[in-house]
Structure formats: structure tokens, C-alpha cells
């Protein structure tokens, strides 16, 4: 047994049985070993950003890590942006990066680079396996580190000679850390604060909003305290729909978020952080909490945030039952195809138990409202703000949940970052319906151009935010990668095309041609 076999068998024994790959020469022994360990499913991506984004989507849905396989520092660099999104979403990823053989590294070959430095910025744990005798134990520790809590990217750097040399057998899984009970004194002290008359908000994210128990616990606290409850702007995974407590998300635009938080004297933060603006703007605040607002963090490292909220709800004497969203759907829209009518069509048709991977940006502005009363579904978002995640995220989600329909909302500009995900969807037969929101523009940047105070932009500046000339033909691009596609230019046509795409038991794409402005 060589090091590659020991590594893969250890990963499988630790529950990691999917590997999204884009390998090179230094990873060939890992690739060869896949045939000898059929329990590990290898999924090829044609760009490393697809690989890392798919690993993120897989883990958000499966609740456990996938592995990646990347080629040296440049391969890691190509996948880095979506590892950034995984880091921000606290997603568990076992990120395996091949390296030159240890005796070869001092020669400074053309592909030599400081992989540990590149990995360190997006990883909570980084280790280079120094020998084939260590690699199995290193792999088990990487899985434990990835799982946290909270989840994180754990990067294991695998020199080629560690892969090809003889090794011990696979290692046993490493025990996970024990979950810590919430501090009863801290819970009671916070309950006393919430019993007061000052305006309070409960801001939740992470594990709290991923399932019914967390949503109910957060809503129990808010309703008992007379407080507002709100979800972080970009949750990794949010359970929503009819029968679940409805929860508004904090706005992306700082001005709107400040309006939502106006007058709040006490902000209770659970499995997220106090909000700050995404960017600095001239003469605008970066910290979004109101002046004088006291921030209270409930829980802490190792504490189950749902258990902490349940303890707080009990301390407040909160009833077990809470207000829940009623079932509702928009009618099938007619007339012009706009961001609003596109959203209504999706709300009209969204399947029960769907998973939505949302990188809709400006074109998806109205979708949350149009789908709030749909049958229960999960919503995955752009956690770190680095665009190019939507289609890879949907790809990984579909691998994790082959019995569920995945819908990808994808802005046209963002789509061009990782369009190769469509090829992987076709190759693997994944049940993903992609909606391209094509307005021919980086519309979010047109908005930001005004918000940062750039005065009188000229034609050159505006052309940098315009992705026409030539117009992108997403149907041709999708069909060239084996995915059937249709284009729609009015609301009736889009609704019909989306209905046909959702009926396909595999990948399909609908291009929604939207006006350049909302």
C-alpha cells in the first residue's frame, strides 16, 4: 500500500467519500489509487474554482466534508476564491493539494511555490505530510479539523513521493471535540436584559438557520422578548418555506441594514457576527450597529448555538409554538420578463424540497419574497462575496442530494467565472436547473459606481461594466457542454421554459433575457 492508498482509505473511513478533482502530474498516484478504492467517488471539474465551489456546496447539504484534489500552488490559486467563500461560510472542506516530491523542491522547478502561504489565508488548518508513514494520520486529523466546530477548510499538502512510497494502512477517525453546554449564568443574564423595555434584535446565522429546530428556537426567543429576529445577510444554508418560521435577512446595502437596525439597543448575535458594511464608502459608517447598541454574543466556541437559543427561550418562558409562514405561491406571471416576473415564475413553480443555489445578485432581488410561501426548501448563498460560486455550489449540492431538485440562480457576469460547472453537471447527470439572469451588465457594479461617489463616469468607465459587444449566448455555451437550454424574452415564455427544464431529470438551463435596469 502506498501513501495515496492510505490517504484515500483513511478519508473513506472518516466518512469522506466524494473527491472533486482537477489533478496534475504530482497527483497521479492519488488518481491511480481511485480504482482500488471504489468507495471514493471522483468527480472531475475542468477548472479548480468549480472543484472548490462544488466541495463547498456538497458539504453545506451533506453536513460532512468532501475532499478536493488540486495541482500545486497554481491549482490552489485557481480554486482560492471559492475556498474563501467556504471559509466565510464555515464549510468543512478537506482540501488536498499535491506538491513536488520532497527532494525535488529545492531545485525551484517552474511550478514550485509556497503552497502553505497560499493555503493559509483560506484554511483554519494547514499541514504538509512529511512522509508516507504520516499521511494516513494526517488525513484523519484533516477531517477532524475540517469538521470543527465550526467547520473550516483544512488543507493537506501531499508531496508526490509521499503518495508513491510504501505506507502503513489507513488510520482510524480522530475523535471529534465534545459539544459544550451553554453557560447557565450567561443565559440568565441575557434573559434579564431581554426582559427590559429597550429595543432588541436577535441576529442569527450559521447552524441556527439551517434547519427547523434553529429557526424555531430563534423565533421563540424573539417572540417572548418582543424583539426582532433577523438572519445574517449571506447564510451558508437557510431552511425556508411554508410551515417554517419566516425570517428576514439583513440587507446587503449598508443603508438598508441600518434602517432595519434603527433604534436597536441590544443586539444578540448567535453563530454569526455583528454586521459591518461590505465595503467602505466616503462619509458612511462601516459599523452597522446603531450608536450605543450593546452587542451580546450567545454561545461561544464549542457551544451548540441551537441549544443555547433553546436555553434562552426556556429562561424567558417562551411557548413552544411560534408563528410560521403560510403556504402561498404567486400566480403565473404575464407580460414583460423582468426581475419581478422572473421571481414570480420561480415562486409559481419551485418544487418541494428543492435546493436553491443563489448567485442572482441584482437580477434575483425579488426572488426571496416570491418564494417565501413555497413548499419547504433550502437556500444556499454567496457567503464570502467572491463571485463565481453559484454553478459550482449547485453542482456539489446535487452530488450530495441526488433525490432533490437543485435550482441555480446565476447572474450573467458571475456565470462566466465558472461556466465549466455545466460540463460536470452533464458528465455526472446531475439534476440541476440553471436560470441565467441575463441583463448584459455587471449591474451590481453600476450600482456601486454611484454609491462610492465616483462622479460623472465616462464611456470608458461605463464600458468596463458592460458585458455586451458581443452579447453572450448562454444557450449555445450550455449546449456546447452537453446541457439542453432555452432562451426566454417574456414572462409567459420564461414560465413555460422553466416548467420544461424542471421536468428534465438532469441538467437544463433557461436563459432569462432581462432589461438592463430593474
Could you walk me through the main structural features you see in this protein, from its secondary elements to its overall organization?
- The protein is of the alpha/beta class.
- It has 3 domains: 3-164, Thiamin diphosphate (ThDP)-binding fold, Pyr/PP domains (Rossmann fold, 3-Layer(aba) Sandwich); 184-315, Rossmann fold, CATH 3.40.50; 339-513, Thiamin diphosphate (ThDP)-binding fold, Pyr/PP domains (Rossmann fold, 3-Layer(aba) Sandwich).
- It has 20 helices and 18 strands.
- The protein has helices spanning 3-13, 28-33, 48-62, 72-88, 115-120, 135-147, 160-164, 184-194, 212-225, 254-260, 305-315, 339-349, 367-371, 390-400, 412-415, 421-428, 443-451, 459-463, 474-480, 491-503, and strands spanning 18-21, 41-44, 67-71, 93-99, 125-128, 153-159, 200-204, 228-231, 238-240, 248-249, 266-270, 294-297, 355-359, 377-380, 406-411, 432-438, 485-488, 508-513.
- The radius of gyration is 24 Å and the shape is globular.
- It starts with a helix and ends in a 5-residue tail after the last strand.
- InterPro entries: THDP-binding, Thiamin_PyroP_enz_TPP-bd_dom, TPP_enz, TPP_enzyme_TPP-bd.
- Residues 379-511 form the Thiamine pyrophosphate enzyme TPP-binding domain.
- Residues 1-105 form the Thiamine pyrophosphate enzyme N-terminal TPP-binding domain.
- This is Acetolactate synthase large subunit.
Amino acid at each position: 500500500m502506498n501513501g495515496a492508498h492510505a490517504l484515500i482509505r483513511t478519508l473513506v473511513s472518516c466518512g469522506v467519500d466524494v473527491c472533486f478533482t482537477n489533478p496534475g502530474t504530482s497527483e497521479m498516484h492519488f488518481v491511480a489509487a481511485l480504482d482500488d478504492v471504489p468507495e471514493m467517488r471522483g468527480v472531475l471539474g475542468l477548472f479548480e474554482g468549480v472543484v472548490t465551489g462544488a466541495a463547498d456546496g456538497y458539504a453545506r447539504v451533506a453536513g460532512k466534508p468532501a475532499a478536493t484534489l488540486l495541482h500545486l500552488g497554481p491549482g490552489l490559486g485557481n480554486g482560492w476564491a471559492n475556498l474563501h467563500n467556504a471559509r466565510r461560510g464555515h464549510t468543512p472542506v478537506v482540501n488536498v493539494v499535491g506538491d513536488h516530491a520532497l527532494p525535488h523542491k529545492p531545485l525551484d522547478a517552474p511550478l514550485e511555490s509556497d503552497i502553505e502561504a497560499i493555503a493559509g489565508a483560506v484554511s483554519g488548518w494547514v499541514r504538509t505530510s512529511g512522509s508516507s508513514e504520516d499521511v494516513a494520520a494526517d488525513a484523519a486529523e484533516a477531517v477532524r479539523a475540517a469538521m470543527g466546530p465550526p467547520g473550516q477548510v483544512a488543507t493537506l499538502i501531499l508531496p508526490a513521493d509521499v503518495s508513491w512510497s510504501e505506507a502503513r494502512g489507513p488510520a482510524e477517525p480522530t475523535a471529534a471535540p465534545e459539544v459544550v453546554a451553554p453557560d447557565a449564568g450567561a443565559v440568565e443574564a441575557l434573559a434579564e436584559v431581554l426582559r427590559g423595555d429597550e429595543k432588541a434584535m436577535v441576529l442569527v446565522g450559521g447552524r441556527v438557520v439551517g434547519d427547523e429546530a434553529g429557526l424555531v428556537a430563534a423565533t421563540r426567543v424573539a417572540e417572548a422578548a418582543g424583539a426582532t429576529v433577523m438572519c445574517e445577510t449571506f447564510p451558508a444554508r437557510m431552511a425556508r418555506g411554508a410551515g417554517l418560521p419566516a425570517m428576514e435577512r439583513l440587507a446587503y446595502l449598508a443603508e438598508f441594514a441600518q434602517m432595519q437596525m434603527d433604534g436597536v439597543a441590544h443586539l444578540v448575535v448567535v453563530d454569526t457576527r455583528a454586521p459591518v458594511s461590505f465595503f467602505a464608502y466616503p462619509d458612511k459608517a462601516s459599523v452597522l450597529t446603531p450608536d450605543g447598541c450593546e452587542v451580546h454574543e450567545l454561545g461561544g466556541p464549542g457551544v451548540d448555538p441551537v441549544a443555547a437559543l433553546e436555553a434562552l427561550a426556556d429562561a424567558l418562558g417562551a411557548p413552544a409554538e411560534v408563528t410560521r409562514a403560510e403556504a402561498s405561491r404567486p400566480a403565473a406571471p404575464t407580460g414583460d420578463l423582468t426581475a419581478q416576473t422572473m421571481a414570480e415564475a420561480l415562486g409559481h413553480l419551485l418544487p418541494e424540497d428543492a435546493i436553491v443555489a443563489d448567485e442572482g445578485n441584482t437580477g434575483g432581488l425579488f426572488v426571496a419574497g416570491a418564494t417565501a410561501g413555497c413548499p419547504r426548501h433550502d437556500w444556499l448563498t454567496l457567503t464570502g462575496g467572491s463571485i463565481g460560486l453559484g454553478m459550482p455550489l449547485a453542482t456539489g449540492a446535487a452530488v450530495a442530494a441526488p433525490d432533490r431538485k437543485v435550482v441555480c440562480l446565476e447572474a450573467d457576469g458571475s456565470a462566466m467565472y465558472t461556466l465549466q460547472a455545466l460540463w460536470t453537471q452533464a458528465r455526472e447527470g446531475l439534476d440541476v436547473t440553471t436560470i441565467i439572469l441575463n441583463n448584459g451588465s455587471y449591474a451590481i457594479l453600476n450600482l456601486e459606481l454611484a454609491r462610492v461617489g465616483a462622479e460623472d463616469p465616462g464611456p470608458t468607465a461605463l464600458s468596463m461594466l458592460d458585458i455586451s459587444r458581443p452579447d453572450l449566448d448562454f444557450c449555445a455555451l450550455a449546449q456546447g457542454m452537453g446541457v439542453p437550454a432555452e432562451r426566454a424574452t417574456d414572462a409567459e415564455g420564461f414560465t413555460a421554459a422553466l416548467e420544461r427544464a424542471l421536468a428534465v431529470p438532469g441538467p437544463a438551463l433557461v436563459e432569462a433575457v432581462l432589461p438592463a435596469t430593474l
